[in-house]
Structures are given as C-alpha cells and as structure tokens.
Amino acid sequence: MSPQLTTPGSVRSAAEVNEQIRALWLRAGGSLSAQERAEYELLVVEWAAAIRGRVVRAA
Predict the structure, then answer these.
(1) Are 59 and 36 in contact (CB under 8 A)?
(2) pLDDT tens, 4-58?
(3) How far is CA 47 from CA 15, 17, 42, 58, in A?
C-alpha cells in the first residue's frame, strides 16, 4: 500500500493526520520499515503544522 501524502498547501486537520499515523503504526505492527519511517516523519511534520495552525487561529 503506498502512502497517501498530501500536496503542499493542502489542509487536513490534526485529527485526520493523527488517524493516518495510528493506521500506519497498526499496519506496521509496531515496527516501521525505512519507507514507513519516512512516511511517519512526513506525517508528524504535517500533524505539527496542523496543531500550530489551530493554535494560531484560536489566539
């Protein structure tokens, strides 16, 4: 299964990204391959950006 990565400028909520992170860990059985690790790192960056965006809007 190939990762579903978003294009720059696309917006997903932190909850959506978090769900994809959880699904990745579940598929991997708790141990990520090199490809899965790269996907995970991209997802974490996207999740952090979504969290920051939510905090800025709330301020």
Answers:
(1) no
(2) 554 455 579 999 999 999 999 999 998 999 999 999 999 999 999 999 887 666 5
(3) 8, 6, 9, 17
Q: Max Cα separation, the chain? A: 39
User: How far is 19 from 13, CA to CA, in rounded Å?
Assistant: 10
Residue 15 CB partners (closer than 8 Å, separation 6+): none
DSSP 1-59: ----PPPTT----HHHHHHHHHHHHHHHTT---HHHHHHHHHHHHHHHHHHHHHHHHH-
